[in-house]
UniProtKB/TrEMBL annotation:
Belongs to the binding-protein-dependent transport system permease family. Keywords: Cell membrane, Membrane, Transmembrane, Transmembrane helix, Transport. It is a multi-pass membrane protein. It is found in: Cell membrane. The keyword Transmembrane helix applies. PROSITE patterns: ABC_TM1. This is Sugar ABC transporter permease. One of its GO terms (cellular component) is plasma membrane. GO terms for biological process: transmembrane transport.
Length: 269
């Protein structure tokens, strides 16, 4: 924990207070600049753009997409014991365990405007450049496809923890499937739901994979905060500024985690 987590975090905080660069004089002899990097970030419109894009990306793909679809898949497969179910689970999980570079190549080919698979399946849309004309929705759908398996596994384990006697009692009382879900299942696994939301939200917030699809374009429409940090720290060589943005990301992650923990404690008290 100290070597791989605490020390890098503290080192990042320190670098964020300096003007260290990748090359030049500041690389050999960085100077302490205090909160100058943070003030620069707060006055940079591209930082706010990256923050808004990141929040939309997390809301669309993690909070709404992966969580909802993952739960629906886990609910639909909860009592289905057959080889077909195992095959479906393998296909869904395969999307999660494939290397990022392979997945990105597949989706670039799928969404290509000239000869992409999606345009072939939807001939009425013409030669639509999905990664240019609908860039943010495209990476949101991509991440939903990519991460739903993780949410499905979490919810599958949660649904297995629901006592069968509770569902049987509700069924004998005449409750429909929707009523069982609303009155028995959701209250029982609400802690698991919040935990799943926390994990997929933090994972998505720090995701760099969209860079493999769009490199943050077009016109910064898909430049999430990890891509913004990469561009400033390595493309522009401003390591100190990139470290300051990373520290802000750590703070935002902490706020998200504390919010979920607060809601979880309220639900369980």
């Amino acid at each position: 924990m100290g070597v791989f987590l605490i020390f890098p975090a503290l080192w990042t905080l320190y670098l964020g207070l300096t003007d260290v660069r990748l090359t030049g004089v500041a690389a050999a002899d960085p100077q302490f600049v205090g909160i100058e990097n943070y003030l620069t970030a707060l006055s940079d419109s591209l930082f706010y753009n990256a923050l808004i894009v990141t929040l939309l990306f997390v809301l669309g793909s993690a909070v709404i997409g992966q969580t909802v679809l993952g739960f629906l898949l886990a609910w639909a497969l909860r009592g289905w014991q057959s080889p077909v179910r195992r095959g479906l689970e393998v296909l869904v999980i395969l999307a999660w365990i494939m290397p990022d570079s392979v997945v990105a190549f597949l989706w670039i080919a799928y969404l290509d405007g000239d000869s992409g698979t999606l345009n072939q399946l939807l001939p009425f849309v013409g030669e639509t450049e999905w990664l240019l004309e609908h860039a943010l929705p495209a990476i949101i759908v991509f991440n939903v496809w990519r991460g739903t398996a993780f949410a499905m596994l979490l919810f599958g384990a949660a649904l297995n923890a629901v006592p069968p006697s509770h569902l049987e009692t509700a069924r004998l009382a005449g409750a429909s499937a929707v009523q069982q879900l609303r009155d028995v299942v959701l209250p029982t696994i609400r802690g698991h739901i919040l935990t799943a939301l926390l994990l997929v939200s933090l994972w998505t917030f720090n995701l760099f994979t969209p860079y493999l699809l769009t490199q943050g374009g077009p016109n910064f429409e898909t430049e999430v905060l990890p891509i913004y940090v990469f561009r400033e720290a390595f493309s522009h060589g401003r390591l100190g500024y990139g470290a300051a943005i990373s520290a802000i990301m750590i703070l935002i992650n902490l706020v998200i985690a504390l919010f979920y923990i607060h809601v979880l404690r309220e639900r369980t008290s």
